[in-house]
Design a protein that fits this description.
238 residues; alpha/beta; seven-stranded mixed beta sheet; 6 helices; 9 strands; 35% helix; globular
Length: 238
């Protein structure tokens, strides 16, 4: 018996081998991406690339799995790597301390990856990730908006062109259609965005969105589940 024996009861030895031999890139190690990365590590994925240049702040503690008071100021990717090391010491974790942007996208070899998780915040970065994944013929799953929401049961997995309600998904649909992208798996919420209460805290020119412990975490876990099932070739109708 090992730490993955309960998972093996559901996906079989062959499924576990597929996960051990897979490399998954997680772009964005925040509320969604952090939970996705840890769930993938706990599922037995053998190699993970973690991409983010942000450090943990005290305002991350309410929702990010890596955020604790003693970790404030540390790089998110480094803390995530430390957590994975005590979950699965055999996992190969590569850290990239930088934000993914269209300007630096050529620094990444997308052909190395068996799956890509998009948990970044900006539309331009999301679109670039989709285009790079498509060019490399690597499956990708994208997180749509998880901020300003309170209902974790409103998340669904769908093709981008079948989404509704989510403002980010609407923008992505339009931009991807222009670029000839035919399909894209996303996790999105049908819950209408809640208007945040007044706050003095701002990030640049936009108001910081509200968030909770139980909304982005659910999105991240759904994403990890889709990655695991796709890598193992498991149908939802099994």
């Amino acid at each position: 018996m090992d730490q993955f024996s309960r998972t093996e009861l559901l996906i079989g030895r062959e499924g576990m081998e597929k996960l051990r031999n897979s490399c998954v890139a997680v772009f964005g190690i925040g509320g969604v991406g952090g939970h996705a990365a840890e769930a993938l590590a706990r599922s037995g994925v053998g190699a993970l690339d973690l991409i983010d240049s942000d450090t943990i702040s005290i305002t991350n503690i309410n929702r990010q799995i890596i955020a604790t008071l003693d970790k404030v100021g540390q790089y998110k990717t480094d803390v995530m790597k430390e957590r994975i090391a005590v979950i699965n010491p055999e996992a190969q974790v590569t850290v990239h301390r930088r934000f993914f942007l269209p300007e630096n996208s050529d620094e990444f070899d997308f052909t190395r990856y068996d799956y890509i998780v998009d948990a970044v915040d900006t539309v331009s970065a999301k679109i670039e990730l989709v285009m790079k994944a498509q060019a490399a013929a690597v499956p990708i799953i994208c997180s749509m908006g998880a901020g300003n929401k309170l209902d974790p049961t409103a998340f669904e997995t769908a093709d981008i062109y079948e989404t509704s309600v989510c403002p980010l998904a609407r923008v992505m649909r339009a931009e991807l259609r222009k670029r000839g992208v035919k399909k894209l798996k996303v996790v999105y919420s049908k819950e209408p965005s809640i208007t945040p209460l007044p706050s003095d805290e701002e990030c640049g020119k936009r108001t910081v969105p509200g968030s909770t412990a139980f909304v982005p975490s659910v999105a991240g876990l759904i994403i990890a589940g889709e990655v695991v099932k796709d890598l193992c070739g498991i149908s939802n109708n099994r």
